[in-house]
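Hey forum,

I'm writing up a methods section and want to include a predicted complex as supplementary material. The small molecule is nicotinamide-adenine-dinucleotide. I've pasted the protein sequence and the SMILES. Can someone with a working setup run it? I'll credit the forum in the acknowledgements.
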Amino acid sequence: MVGSKTVLVTGGAGFIGSHLVDRLIELDYRVVVVDDLSTGKLTHLARGVNFHHTSVTQPAIDEIFHREKPEIVFHLAAQVSVNHSVRDPAGDAQTNVLGMLRLIDASRRHGVEKFIYSSTGGALYGDPEYIPCREDHPIRPLSPYGLSKSVGEKYLDLYRRTYRLNYVALRYGNVYGPRQDPHGEAGVIAIFSRTILEDKQPRIFGSGEQERDFVYVKDVVEANLLALKEGVIGAYNIGTGTGNSVNQIFQMLSEILKFRKKPVYSPARLGEVHQISLDATKANLEMGWQPQVSLREGLEFTAAYFRDMAKAPA
Ligand SMILES: NC(=O)c1ccc[n+]([C@@H]2O[C@H](COP(=O)([O-])OP(=O)(O)OC[C@H]3O[C@@H](n4cnc5c(N)ncnc54)[C@H](O)[C@@H]3O)[C@@H](O)[C@H]2O)c1
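Reply by user p_vandermeer:
Happy to help. Structure tokens for the complex are below, copy them as they are.
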């Protein structure tokens, strides 16, 4: 599975995508990135990458496939904010449904061997009937974002049945780690880290008792690589199986960063799930994946990264 193939990473200048690109370069793949830099940053991109600054919604995608001839596609480019999708559902669908479809269709026409899709577990199942959720849990998203990501999976399933396009949909929990945007609306660990390092009180929406399955970015990158294994096809949860509340995250980060102020509580936001964790037994059995980084370690790595960023000259 290692080396020399051409891989296309959409969203490769983003948080998860740029970590994946680093690892692919290390493994000697030829890496092509498509990113419109709407939330991604050029400074995250490794050297030696063929970069195309365009949107996945543009017809130029076809020309890029024609020229670069990717054998594998990792599709991470997306409108990623649940909140934004509630405010602008059509804008969300533009990237997450139509952009996605453009990529799948180009992949089919240009003979891509495997399509690895960054889906969501956190926003897909809705308020769960049981936790941790398995992949066969009913899909009842509470936001346009959750729905648009699930539509992406449905198209992949259609393209597999009709055109034999191989795919893996990785349903992530709440991914966190270095390079996550601390100015966005999502990514509570990045946002708390930045706010605490500015010695300000973080804002918690709702009671803070809402639980998420937090998974470290390096573990998510590993899942993307293991998804290339032969015989791995379909949807897989990528999470730890354990939920942690936003209040717990605040307490742990406060301890690590020696912060003594209290958070500020605001009304809960629409479209957010109350409690979710993901059963990743299938990924373990079929891909050999399991999380390697504990929450405590991951929070320490992330806090250290944001501490360094805060010290770096602007
Ligand atoms: N971070 C999480 O907790 C999480 C959880 C579940 C799923 N995901 C999925 O993982 C993927 C990566 O998310 P992330 O957290 O790294 O977010 P991110 O915002 O850092 O990365 C998304 C990247 O896609 C690019 N992009 C956005 N719209 C684009 C477009 N139309 N054309 C080309 N590029 C575009 C952005 O510039 C950015 O570089 C997304 O598909 C997201 O839905 C993330």
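Some notes you might quote in the supplement: The longest strand covers residues 114-120. The two ends are 40 Å apart (CA to CA).
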